[in-house]
Write a structure and sequence with these properties.
One of its GO terms (molecular function) is ADP binding. This protein has 170 residues and is α/β, with parallel strands linked by helices. It is built from eight helices and three strands; from the N terminus they run ααβααβαβααα. It has a three-stranded parallel sheet with strand order 1-2-3.
Length: 170
């Protein structure tokens, strides 16, 4: 992690053009253990902004179906880990009652991206060294010139190299 997948997804999710294009917006962080019931509850709560009144998967799915019925839906699933296509199909079942569904997935796994049928994958990479240095300078030397602190340049470059191009590590 640390290349900015969640940050990029949040920018899309919070974009005013995206917000006005959907009847229902939801954001759920998915843990490494894929638990369909827990995920369905989290999505229901994200859509309704209220605690889910149900704990049985079938009841949660029914509530989710009613919530999305005939609506356009945008759902962000952050840090998705899923191993079987059948789990993904089970997950989608209640969402099929929506008028339209757009699902934004962040994942570290190309296999997960393929398994969920990603139509427009966007792979984030590490920052080039020049960009890392510029980003580091913005935060480390806020408001002052790097020339004012020449003794810190080598220290800063050492820190930058240890971050290995990960923007969030800077």
């Amino acid at each position: 992690g640390g290349v900015g997948k969640t940050t990029m997804a949040q920018m899309v999710y919070n974009d005013s053009g995206v917000q006005v294009s959907y009847d229902l917006m939801g954001w759920v962080h998915v843990s490494q253990t894929f638990d369909l019931r827990r995920l369905a509850i989290a999505i229901t709560e994200s859509f309704t902004r209220q605690p889910c009144a149900y704990s049985e998967l079938s009841a949660v799915h029914d509530a989710l179906k009613q919530e999305v019925l005939t609506k356009s839906v945008f759902l962000a699933l952050d840090d998705l880990w899923i191993e079987r296509q059948s789990c993904w199909q089970d997950f989608l079942r209640p969402l099929k009652f929506a008028q339209s569904v757009t699902i934004l997935v962040t994942t570290r796994s190309k296999e997960v991206a393929q398994l969920v049928g990603t139509s427009h994958p966007f792979f984030l990479g590490l920052l080039p060294e020049d960009n890392c240095w510029q980003l580091f300078q913005c935060y480390a030397f806020r408001g002052s010139s790097i020339n004012e602190k020449p003794g810190l340049v080598q220290v800063g470059r050492n820190i930058m190299h240890k971050c290995s191009g990960l923007p969030l590590a800077l």
